[in-house]
Write a structure and sequence with these properties.
Layout (H helix, E strand, L loop, with lengths): L3 E5 L3 H12 L3 E5 L11 E4 L4 E4 L5 E2 L3 H9 L7 E2 L4 E6 L4 E6 L21 H7 L20 H15 L8 H10 L10 E3 L4 H15 L3 E3 L6 E4 L4 E5 L4 E3 L5 E4 L3 H7 L9 E9 L10 E5 L5 E4 L4 E5 L10 H16 L8 E11 L3 H4 L12 E3 L12 H17 L1
Parallel strand pairs: 1-2, 1-14, 2-10, 7-16, 14-20
Antiparallel strand pairs: 3-4, 5-9, 6-9, 7-8, 11-12, 12-13, 15-18, 15-19, 16-17, 17-18
Helix pairs in contact: 1-6, 1-10, 2-10
The structure holds flavin-adenine dinucleotide (FAD).
Length: 414
């Protein structure tokens, strides 16, 4: 009898698991609760702004090797645009000072020793003090490991870590912060070139993955929410979707690639993160002024990053829980003021949309990091995947893809 692997959840982790298995000739059936794949990484047509927008602008770095390999496998590398250099324009809205953080294109962090390439008012030795983070130590809040103040922290470390951890870096897990630094600036500029998906997240990460699965005889069921697993002491034997039950044969396997709160409602005894952080994104329908770099880091504003696409300007606020109390209109106005100052635009606020993802990522604190389970479960044929499983990385596309690949490898070894 041929073997089938059921993958629950068509987010990036589930798609990566399915693609990895399909590439090895395994029959895959993906079950997705909603009517759309992509999960927290998706595009949709928005009536208010009259645009197709992403739930949030996503950045990859050239050091995100698993994510880029995933794109290569599904033949979607052309759908992301990588900067040729690891150069990040910044503006401090309190002082109006602008600078270019230029990480170079080699493996050595020589930029630290060049006044024109590092952040203003910083010295090489400020960065050397922050490098202490690289040394292994028990996981603890970052401010118990390094000093979370001073210009090098505020202008370089904090923006990078806040974007990657989606948690105030001073309270964040030192292990996760170390993983981010090790895989990015510690590798030099070669690992830090940013990639964006100007034609949208679904066009880059989702539609090509679905096409790949289709061309490999994979099946995807939408509107199929898993409620419960039927289990024996050793194995999952059935998947209960409410109206329908799928039998899981003795050679079959299941990859559960749903968010942590959904995983715990299916397997209540599972250890999983249960504290989350929000992300707010703004999208404005306006052609940006010419000659702007694709993205700018903002200090002392409302938005932290502003992105300039061909037909729109987008902005991101990470760790945005405080903004959940504000109306969308209030947030849009605050961010538009930042955009006006960053891009020297005088125009009235154009058509806009604000997307608030309340549970965008798990809170990257030491306590939450300790709750992340591995791939293995109490049942031999049930594997876990998702950006929240213990990949050693914060909740990112890279973490999601690695978790999906790992679940696929686990299932292959059964
Ligand atoms: C606004 C925002 C901005 C972000 N920015 C970045 C960034 O710049 N760079 C970066 O690398 N990462 C970023 N991320 C993080 C990234 O989006 C996630 O790490 C990644 O998408 C998680 O994928 P996943 O498959 O683990 O989970 P999810 O995307 O949550 O996928 C889980 C899927 O399971 C489905 N599901 C749930 N319950 C069930 C059920 N019972 N049965 C069947 N299906 C079910 C869901 O509908 C969903 O499709 C951002 C996230 C957000 C929200």
């Amino acid at each position: 009898m041929s073997r089938t692997v059921h993958i629950i959840g068509a987010g990036i982790a589930g798609l990566a698991a399915a693609v990895s298995l399909a590439a090895r000739g395994v029959a895959t059936v993906v079950h997705e609760a909603t009517d759309q794949a992509g999960g927290r990484c998706r595009s949709y047509d928005d009536a208010a702004s009259g645009m197709r927008i992403d739930n949030g602008t996503h950045i990859l770095l050239s050091g995100n090797v698993a994510a880029l390999d995933f794109l290569a496998r599904i033949r979607a590398l052309a759908m992301v645009t990588g900067a040729s250099k690891a150069r990040f324009p910044f503006i401090d809205l309190a002082t109006r000072q602008r600078w270019m953080l230029d990480l170079g294109d080699g493996r050595l962090p020589l930029w630290v020793f060049d006044r024109r390439r590092r952040a203003p008012n910083t010295r090489a030795r400020d960065y050397v003090a922050l490098a202490r983070l690289i040394w292994r130590a028990p996981d603890r809040p970052l401010d118990q490991m390094i000093s979370c103040s001073g210009p090098a922290y505020e202008q370089v470390m904090r923006p990078l870590l806040l974007a990657a951890l989606n948690t105030d870096p001073s309270t964040a897990s030192s292990d996760l912060a170390r993983a981010v630094i090790r895989e990015s600036i510690a590798q030099g500029g070669v690992a830090c070139r940013p990639y964006l998906a100007p034609r949208g997240l679904s066009a880059a990460f989702v539609e090509p993955a679905l096409a790949y699965l289709k061309s490999h005889a994979g099946i995807v069921h939408f509107g199929n929410q898993l409620h419960r697993c039927d289990v024996t002491a050793e194995a999952v034997t059935g998947l209960d979707f409410g109206n329908d039950v799928a039998v899981v044969g003795p050679d079959d396997a299941v990859v559960l690639a749903v968010p942590p709160y959904a995983a715990r409602s299916i397997i209540p005894q599972l250890s999983a993160p249960d504290e989350f952080r929000a992300i707010v994104n703004a999208h404005f329908r306006i052609v940006p002024p010419p000659d702007l770099e694709p993205m700018t880091g903002v200090l002392n504003g409302t938005a932290e990053w502003i992105f300039f696409f061909e037909d729109r300007i987008s902005a991101t606020i990470s760790g945005a829980d405080l903004f959940m109390q504000h109306t969308k209109e209030e947030i849009a106005k605050l961010i538009w003021r930042d955009v006006q100052r960053v891009a020297n635009v005088q125009a009235e606020m154009p058509p806009w949309q604000i997307v608030r993802e309340r549970r965008a990522t798990f809170a990257a604190t030491p306590a939450q990091n300790a709750k992340r389970p591995g791939v293995r479960t109490a049942w031999r044929n049930l594997a876990l995947a998702g950006d929240w499983t213990d990949t050693g990385l914060p909740a990112t596309i890279e973490s999601a893809v690695r978790s999906g690949n790992r679940a696929a490898d686990f299932v292959m070894q059964l």
